[in-house]
Design a protein that fits this description.
By secondary structure, this protein is α+β, with helices and mostly antiparallel strands. The protein contains 16 helices and 11 strands. The protein has helices at about 5-15, 115-140, 200-215, 225-245, 250-260, 275-280, 300-325, 335-355, 360-375, 380-390, 405, 435-440, 455, 460-465, 470-475, 475-485; strands at about 15-20, 35, 60-65, 75-80, 90-95, 155-165, 170, 175-185, 195, 270, 285. Helix 2 links the parallel strand 5 and strand 6 (about 155-165). It is globular and about 90 Å long.
Length: about 500
Amino acid sequence: MKIHQQDIQAQRESETIQVEVPAQWPGRASTAVQEAAPPTPRPAPRPVPIPVPIRTGHRFLIYKQDPSVTELGARLTFIPTVVLNGPADARVRTELQDVTPVARNINGDFVFTAGSPQFDCAHTFAVVRQTMAMYERHNGGDPIPFAWNVDGDTERITVFPHAGEGANAFYTRTGKALKFLFFTPQGQPPGSVLHTCRSHDIVAHETGHAILDGLKPGWLSAGNPPQTGGLHESFGDITAIFLALAEPDQADALVALTKANLHDKSFLSELAEEFGKALGMPSGLRNADNDLKLSQVGNEVHAISQVFTGAIYDVLADVYTFELSRQRRTKDPAIVLIETASALCKLVFDAIVASPATGARYVDVANQMLQVSATRGAPAIYRTFIRNRFAVREITTAVTPLRDLMSGRMAMTEAGYTGDGQDVTEVEPHDEHSASLRADQDRSRCCGTMQMPEYEVIDAEKLARGGSLEDDDILRDELDGLRRAFSA
């Protein structure tokens, strides 16, 4: 049957619904007529059900580095757990006077204008949560306790995005808190306030202190060797590095920026760029891609930490070079980088867990890395990278000759390369009389965490037992002296 265009038009006109508009409607006559659109057709039911994803989770707008790193800027991230208004959940709560609790929007997300107090609360919470989640993945999915979570205690950590004025940030076990300060850089107008909470690196670094204090509560004591303090500061820095590489957008941006060369200048190795420049430094607060040796740093913990961080960063770059050479035809370089960083992060995490409860040295962690790597069947060249990088920084003895490394002729793509055929998994400290092992800790240039009085006066053995700390614990010696004096 042939249907003409005019027949279709007539049919449409006959289906038009006539609606009389009441006279009381302003500006309308009672005789006016409107055309109402036909009802929207209902979709036909699908014979096969569609899998419905789990809806738990919320979007957050965060700085991917800090406000000065414009290549990444502020982007959305997803936290796949239930977050209450605050933001708060079972492990973390946020506190900012006259601002919190910050409420989710109509879509259940924490998305606010960058730089606003609400943004600072959401950003800081999200980075803390992402840092914790990264290490929980390496812990087999099990939660990592805070140092006070003993004997069934489940008390949360409190995050203070605007804790007070000052050029610092810190973790405190006594306060069960992460506190981020703000300040006006010298020479800047009064309104140019820098908030440490807006730095992805700084938030990850301080959260790293809290996580390591839960894993090794004895390590924060100033009574440990300087290298133990260096492990704490370094753990904060490598936490920031590994967290950046756990995020695909950051890994992809880094590969494009450096052409997959981790020794090229980038936001990854430069830590806390905005903060560092505000303090008069040429770039970041610290540079992970450095050449420092233990003989160059004495007993100053801030500098000592950079030796360990630099060794780990070099191992990361070496392993990435090896893995990219054998996987570049089957995987995107950014995917290789994400997987390489994740594997090394877990190796460092497991090595730290297996290290001594107090008095830990760099060589202890290095040996655990070598042994865990061998147990897991990683290529022998991985352990060559570890031995070489720790040895060249005068942390450990050089069991295998360093001539290939120092001459640039090392076989970076041979899985079985060891330098001399020996796959050694235990090495000795380079210098047992080093100031980094023998002297008292100098924490004068460390972050606020390492300068908290509780870690200066409470001995390592008491800290290692975990649990809450009270003000009386910090004042114990003085109070005991007063009791003796007043009992006479």
